[in-house]
Amino acid sequence: MKMTEEMLSKHMQPITGSAIRDIFKLLAKPGMISFAGGNPSNSALEPDVVSEVAQSVLKKYGTTLLQYGGTEGFAPLRESTAEFLKTCGISAGAEEILPTQGSTQGLDLLLNAVIDPGDTVLVEDPTFLGALQAIRTYHANIVPVPSDEKGVIPEALEDAIRAHHPKLIYVIPTFQNPTGLTLTIERRKRIAELAAQYGVIVAEDDPYRDLRYAGEAVPTIKSFDKEGWVVYLASFSKLISPGMRVGAMVISLPKLMRKCVIGKQSSDLHCPLMTQAIVDSYLRKGLLRPHIERITA
Known about the structure:
Blueprint: H1 19-24, H2 47-61, H3 75-85, E1 97-100, H4 102-114, E2 120-125, H5 129-137, E3 141-148, E4 151-152, H6 154-164, E5 168-171, H7 185-198, E6 201-205, E7 230-235, E8 247-250, H8 254-267, H9 273-284, H10 288-296
Parallel strand pairs: 2-3, 2-5, 5-6, 6-7
Antiparallel strand pairs: 1-8, 3-4, 7-8
Helix pairs in contact: 2-9, 3-9, 4-5, 4-8, 6-7
């Protein structure tokens, strides 16, 4: 007997899979240089450094890294991530940091916590294909908001908020995927204001922020968030290693943090302690900033 579509859950039947993952299969082709996926070159990865750090953390923590851990994350990593994010203008305590398996899991946990079928999510037009697939999995109503050369247009965003009463706004503010645009500081401030004014959560997906080749860094939307409506999605995938799958959410609303933690308990119990400890040590040893300078050069 063959499995049929009817045997699958109704909510997964219309989900066809990630075009991005299909694209990544082409990367194994010799000589291929792909501009289709946001992945670092192998020359930007540091296996010798990571190996040394991995051995040092195993020696330091021993069986702690080989056991189960708390869903809330490896405590030292929560602390070092909070310290690292100060460079983005984000003042968050360790209790506001939730380690995730890349920012991809962060978005999924957020969607799981707040989205019911039929709820509206506002997105930039165009936006990241992977995010669209994640949102569709929760059967949300996706409404695109027009952008121009300065990023998503605040007036159009406010009109969409009034018209559709969204639960969530998804934004990639820096070197946006796929346009490459960077949202201006004035528009970042305005998005934070709109989130507070209308009580809508903003998912600020910012994995590329530190990979700047020229010009001055722009403050995060989260840095203008006074009431906790902005959830910042950080990732070390582009900076240290995509394969280790280490990212973090900054969640300032305790009730929302709790629901994301509960969702993560059912998803993966906790992120691997070994990779969390490696990233923590990498940060504490001061290795990240020199590494970013090298790879951006």
